[in-house]
Amino acid sequence: MSRLAIKICGLSTPDTVGAAMRADATHLGFVHFPKSPRHVEADQLRALAAPVPAHIGRVAVLVDPTDETLALLTATNALTAFQLHGKESPARVAAIRQRFNIPVWKAISVKTRADVESAKAYTGAADLLLFDAKTPEGAALPGGMGLRFDWTLLRGVPISLPWCLSGGLGIDNVAEAIRITGAPMIDVSSGVESAPGIKSVDKIMAFCKAAQPS
Ligand SMILES: O=C(O)c1ccccc1NCC(=O)[C@H](O)[C@H](O)COP(=O)(O)O
């Protein structure tokens, strides 16, 4: 059985980056979206990622980014993937992948089975699909709100791309979420925070332990 991949998203301090590495996270997420309490500028992202070894993924989380923003982030030389949380079409995802020569992950906002099915359109365009809970119309953020969706919606859907389960995961429900969905990868943000945008070292450690009970 291959190892569960774990992404800790929305990191913005050196100590919580260190905690995620010690907890054996496989991917670290850095949000570049000014409306988010987790927003980091490109220079901050570069500094946070500097001590991270090459085998740990470093993912920039973005919402309908312009090419200018993507170029700025690419210039940090710190990233292994872009994660897109806006209304990026399959054609836009493919164009970003081609232009910036970096894996592109597409977040799929899920409330219904049709939302899950819609992910098929990204085959050949995205490198990975991240199934996340749909946030309410007019919400401040399209992710990182601690909302979960009905995990059984993922059952029986043939997904030909690598994928990740996200949305409302926490220390108390992550094992059940993995059992129900068979997710090969999980992503968490607010479930390891003490307040919006404030990651907790203790919660990061506990989450990673709960996800991979020995
Ligand atoms: O986290 C944010 O602030 C954010 C802002 C804008 C777009 C996406 C954002 N987060 C994306 C993530 O990958 C989160 O980890 C994911 O939505 C799960 O969040 P949570 O339910 O809080 O664990």
UniProtKB/TrEMBL annotation:
Pfam families: PRAI. InterPro entries: Aldolase_TIM, PRAI_dom, RibuloseP-bd_barrel, TrpF_fam. GO terms for molecular function: phosphoribosylanthranilate isomerase activity. It catalyses: N-(5-phospho-beta-D-ribosyl)anthranilate = 1-(2-carboxyphenylamino)-1-deoxy-D-ribulose 5-phosphate. It comes from the Bacteria. Its EC number is 5.3.1.24. Keywords: Amino-acid biosynthesis, Aromatic amino acid biosynthesis, Isomerase, Tryptophan biosynthesis. The keyword Ribonucleoprotein does not apply. SUPFAM superfamilies: Ribulose-phoshate binding barrel. The keyword Amino-acid biosynthesis applies. Pathway: Amino-acid biosynthesis; L-tryptophan biosynthesis; L-tryptophan from chorismate: step 3/5. Residues 6-209 form the N-(5'phosphoribosyl) anthranilate isomerase (PRAI) domain. PANTHER family: N-(5'-PHOSPHORIBOSYL)ANTHRANILATE ISOMERASE. NCBIfam families: PRK01222.1-1. Belongs to the TrpF family. This is N-(5'-phosphoribosyl)anthranilate isomerase. It comes from Sphingobium tyrosinilyticum. The gene is trpF.
